[in-house]
Amino acid sequence: MKQSIKVYTDLEHGKISKHIYGHFSEHLGRCIYEGLWVGEDSPIPNTEGIRNDVLGALQELNIPVLRWPGGCFADEYHWKDGVGPRENRKRMVNTHWGGVVENNHFGTHEFMRLCELLGAEPYICGNVGSGTVQEMQEWVEYMTFDGESPMANWRTENGREEPWALKYFGVGNENWGCGGHMRPEYYADLYRRYQTYVRNYGDNKIYKIAGGANVDDYRWTEVLMREAAHLMDGLSLHYYTIPGDFWKGKGSALDDRESEWFKTLKKSFRMDELLTKHSTIMDRYDPEKRVGLIVDEWGTWFDVEPGTNPGFLYQQNTIRDALVAGVHFHIFHEHNDRVHMANIAQMVNVLQAMVLTEGEQMLLTPTYHVFNMYKVHQDATRLEVNADVGTYKFGDDELPAVTVSASKDNEGAIHVSVCHLDPHRDTDLTLKLSGLNKSLSASSVSGELLTANELNAHNTFERPNEVEPVPYEPASVSGHEMELKVPASSVLRVTIRP
Ligand code: AHR
């Protein structure tokens, strides 16, 4: 049956912050060590210790912002252990993630260099759970003070005279859990205290992010907004898409059953409900929507790959993950008035990663390809969309068969992205564009398609290009519309240039 999508090119809904396409890198498993950092003496080609293959791949994505050093690790991290000559840095045990030795070779200078190489803004998460106010104050001074001060002098001794520009700073992580098991009332008071000393030096203006709720803990949001909204710029939210049960079995990343496919996609839609409900609470205290909702951890979380360290959270990544990513982006776009940033967990080798590595080998995941296909939406203006797309039924339950989002960029190009969730049938879609003053020509339309025949299609080190985007052309273009043939289980982006 023919379905249709209408994009209103003259009905605009504000900017889609590029920061929605942010990332997260934690000292967890092989994300930092091996994944990003191999050290200057490694046989793996590197730039000042950062591996070139991974860097090159990530540079393609226009990564706007990168969160570090955790996660749960952030509330155990003492930044002073990670500066100065590497051979003198203190070794610690990463108690939260696998009990492995952390040699602190990747610290503040290395992270800031990575951000420079990626062209990404740093987002540092400070330690509230086991760190002091002074430690947090001095970290900000170390990074951003321009002039004579104990921390700025130390930074200079460590090889960096110029301060770094640092906008995003998180005051703790998951302080309801691994960050101290606090009650919201207690954390709200601590937040008020700690953030006081997160100072703006010179022209550097920090955007302060308070640790937010776990999933549907609306009371946490209520208390934080009531007690501390006037002292924050952003409030975070964490939600992971887990098909099974977090403790009893999350499910396998490579499961090829339709039941798991459906469950996973269904759970990814929960993000919409969470954003709506948390935003409603925030609206009561902040009707101007000054405080951003910062979804600084999201993505799929499956059981670790068999045979890998359970504390390392290494999982494969399939076409199902690609659809989860696409669905999330469409939801984030829809909430662009409140969602100022989102950071997928995590960048390399952990959870829903962009890139997997094994020794000197590297592969790009289906999720990577969605980030690449969708980067055109960064800082573009969201457009009104009306979709009549039918449903994808499974058992007694159903989902929309297709989700859609559209934007217009600075040059007037219109980008329409489509996620086709139904794994059984291809769909013929008519894409109508209202508000255009001239007819479309086939040469003004281009596109990219990511699809696969198997529900668990993925890339391996032996076959790294099993799931990758291919150029896409509409079946026909005429007037102000075009006919799209959209394969089952696919992510599609169509661009119309003026
Ligand atoms: O991303 C893995 C972990 O998930 C993070 O460290 C923590 O914040 C969350 O529980």
**Unreliable runs, pLDDT <50, ≥5 residues?**
none
Integer average pLDDT: 97
Overall shape: globular
Secondary structure tally, helices? 10
Main sheet strand line-up: 23-22-26-20-19-16-1-21-25-24
* Count of beta strands: 26
**How much helicity do the residues have?**
10-25%
**Helix-strand category:** alpha/beta
Residue fraction in strands? 25-35%
Give an overview in words.
The chain is an alpha/beta fold. It is 23% helix and 29% strand. It contains 10 helices and 26 strands. The strands form 6 sheets. The chain has a 10-stranded mixed β-sheet with strand order 23-22-26-20-19-16-1-21-25-24, with helices on one face. A hairpin with a 5-residue loop joins strand 19 and strand 20 (414-420). Helix 5 (184-196) packs across helix 6. It is globular and about 65 Å long. The two termini are 31 Å apart. The mean pLDDT is 97. The site of alpha-L-arabinofuranose has 10 residues, from loops.
